Amino acid sequence: MDISSSINRNVPASTLETILKSIDIMYEKISLAQVAGADVVIRPNVGFVGSADFTLRHEAILEGEKAAIAALPRINGILDRLRREERLP
């Protein structure tokens, strides 16, 4: 799951927002390195939620669920291939 891909690109309006934005960018860079070799990366549309905004957690969870459901065909395809290769029971 990669939630950094939807980082809000607006210019920060305060020092605190600048700090939070820099943290978001740092996480985005780390995420890019971590997902480079992944077979499937789920990227929910959560760019509207700031890293310190917990008021929209329910909306963020719903976006994650939608993205996971959309990724199921790809995941199932990989599982089917692994079963055919007898790498999974």
Brief summary:
The chain has 89 residues and is an all-alpha fold. Helices cover 55% and strands 0% of the residues. The two termini are 25 Å apart.
Q: What's the tally of helices?
A: 2
Instruction: Report the count of strand segments.
Output: 0
Distance between the termini: 25 Å
Structural shape: elongated
Helix content: 55-70%
Explain this structure to me?
The protein is mainly α. It has one domain (4-84). It has helices at residues 15-35, 57-84. The longest helix is centred in the C-terminal third of the chain and has 28 residues, at 57-84.
Keywords for this entry:
89 residues; mainly alpha; 2 helices; elongated
How is this fold's topology laid out?
Blueprint: H1 15-35, H2 57-84
